[in-house]
UniProtKB/TrEMBL annotation:
<feature type="transmembrane region" description="Helical">
    <location>
        <begin position="27"/>
        <end position="46"/>
    </location>
</feature>
<keyword id="KW-0472">Membrane</keyword>
<feature type="domain" description="Cytochrome oxidase subunit II copper A binding">
    <location>
        <begin position="92"/>
        <end position="194"/>
    </location>
</feature>
<keyword id="KW-0460">Magnesium</keyword>
<keyword id="KW-0999">Mitochondrion inner membrane</keyword>
<dbReference type="GO" id="GO:0005507">
    <property type="term" value="F:copper ion binding"/>
</dbReference>
<feature type="transmembrane region" description="Helical">
    <location>
        <begin position="66"/>
        <end position="85"/>
    </location>
</feature>
<dbReference type="GO" id="GO:0005743">
    <property type="term" value="C:mitochondrial inner membrane"/>
</dbReference>
<keyword id="KW-0249">Electron transport</keyword>
<keyword id="KW-1278">Translocase</keyword>
<dbReference type="InterPro" id="IPR034210">
    <property type="entry name" value="CcO_II_C"/>
</dbReference>
<comment type="function">
    <text>Component of the cytochrome c oxidase, the last enzyme in the mitochondrial electron transport chain which drives oxidative phosphorylation. The respiratory chain contains 3 multisubunit complexes succinate dehydrogenase (complex II, CII), ubiquinol-cytochrome c oxidoreductase (cytochrome b-c1 complex, complex III, CIII) and cytochrome c oxidase (complex IV, CIV), that cooperate to transfer electrons derived from NADH and succinate to molecular oxygen, creating an electrochemical gradient over the inner membrane that drives transmembrane transport and the ATP synthase.</text>
</comment>
<dbReference type="InterPro" id="IPR011759">
    <property type="entry name" value="Cyt_c_oxidase_su2_TM_dom"/>
</dbReference>
<dbReference type="InterPro" id="IPR045187">
    <property type="entry name" value="CcO_II"/>
</dbReference>
<keyword id="KW-0186">Copper</keyword>
<keyword id="KW-0496">Mitochondrion</keyword>
<comment type="similarity">
    <text>Belongs to the cytochrome c oxidase subunit 2 family.</text>
</comment>
Length: 194
């Protein structure tokens, strides 16, 4: 759960979210190095005289500033593609949960069990107990086992919705007439809001 004035991400609960956090740090370091280099070059250009104007036309300089960005893009793209394929992978799920978005609530159905479905409505602000979170508390929470692969089938009855749990690294659109699929696995117990 995020807390007020938090600057970073929530604690990772799934292996996918841990990979996303590592990728974020990797990319942020590359962006920081590029920004530092550009700032250094700009400050150098503003404080010194350009005496070697012929170096700006050199073939070597053009080759370097063409190849270097390509290498940097590859350094960002390869880990990104690896995580993208990891997120799309389905490893023989132990449980399947069908999620349907409605105008003001979600419907959940455990498809592996007969007649196990329920609706989850948001608790109105006037009915919240002390310590409960506004716009996050519901009357029926989804209970899922930890350290098991779970397949979520997500769709919508009426309008576009978004089913998201940030600490699991999940965000899937619920679109009417379309069945989207995602997998999740929690590595620790807890109450996760989304």
């Amino acid at each position: 759960m995020a807390y007020p004035m938090q600057l970073g991400f929530q604690d990772a609960t799934s292996p996918i979210m841990e990979e996303l956090l590592h990728f974020h740090d990797h990319t942020l370091m590359i962006v920081f190095l590029i920004s530092s280099l550009v700032l250094y070059i700009i400050s150098l250009m503003l404080t010194t005289k350009l005496t070697h104007t012929s170096t700006m036309d050199a073939q070597e300089v053009e080759t370097v500033w063409t190849i270097l960005p390509a290498i940097i893009l590859i350094m960002i793209a390869l880990p990104s593609l690896r995580i993208l394929y990891m997120m799309d992978e389905i490893n023989n799920p132990s449980l399947t949960v069908k999620t349907m978005g409605h105008q003001w609530y979600w419907s959940y159905e455990y498809t592996d069990y007969e007649d196990l479905s329920f609706d989850s409505y948001m608790i109105p602000t006037s009915e919240l107990k002390p310590g409960e979170l506004r716009l996050l508390e519901v009357d029926n929470r989804v209970v899922l086992p930890m350290e098991m692969t779970i397949r979520m089938l997500i769709s919508s009855e009426d309008v576009l919705h978004s089913w998201a749990v940030p600490s699991l690294g999940l965000k899937t659109d619920a679109i009417p007439g379309r069945l989207n699929q995602t997998t999740l696995m929690s590595t620790r117990p807890g109450l996760f809001y989304g």
